[in-house]
Amino acid sequence: MEISELKKSAGTWCPHVVKGRGCAIYAERPSSCASFGCGYLHWPMAGDHWFPFKSKMVIVAEDAARMAIHVDPNTPHVWKSEPYYSDLKRWSWHAAQHQFQQIVVAIGRRMVAVLPDKDVDLGRVAEDEVVLTGQLADGSYSAMKFNANDPAIKGLRYGQEYKFKAPRLPG
Ligand code: SF4
Questions:
Q1: Considering only CA atoms, which residue is closest to atom 2 of ligand 1?
Q2: 142 in a structural domain
Q3: Residue 133 included in any domain
Q4: Residue 30 lies in a domain
């Protein structure tokens, strides 16, 4: 995951990790680390199989609008295996019904939006880009990345407007 205070980008090792011991600067770790809440521990929908050392994935509630599944880049396809993929699809249905949350898989900076009826591979999502998910007029779902300053998405945030009418969304 990205740790802005350390200028650590997603998918890279933190220089303070000590193998077998954990964090070398635990007492002085950045606030992003101190406030981190592991979804495996805090999210009731995540069963025991989501234990990060076992699953090779970490569930992170990035904010109220996005649940991100950070995948170990050494096992980039593990999220497609069972029982994980069925969980992700079920969570995406739940998110769509409640119209407030995105389910995204992050493999480094590559992101895949997991939608109720499809998965959308967005490729590399740059730091100045945002991902929006929405429902089209025919009831299907879609996702697209935008530059954060694109006037077409002014006032929208990812996951916040689940049924927005963005003309540039792919069909
Ligand atoms: S908790 Fe420590 S090892 Fe982990 S990312 Fe933060 S500074 Fe690095």
A1: 23
A2: no
A3: no
A4: yes
Give the pTM.
0.79
Tally of domains within the chain = 1
Report the Cα 119 to chain-centroid distance in Å.
Answer: 13
Mean pLDDT of the chain: 83
CA of 82 from ligand 1 middle (Å) equals: 30
Measured from the Cα of 34, ligand 1's closest atom is: 1
Please give the distance, rounded to the nearest whole angstrom, from the Cα atom of residue 108 to the centre of ligand 1: 17
Q: Give 120-159 as a 3 state SS string.
A: EEEEECCCCEEEEEEECCCCCEEEEEEECCCHHHCCCCCC
Ligand 1 neighbours (beta carbon < 6 A)? 3, 14, 16-17, 23, 25, 29, 33
| Domain annotation covers residue 24 | yes
Mean pLDDT of 37-50: 86
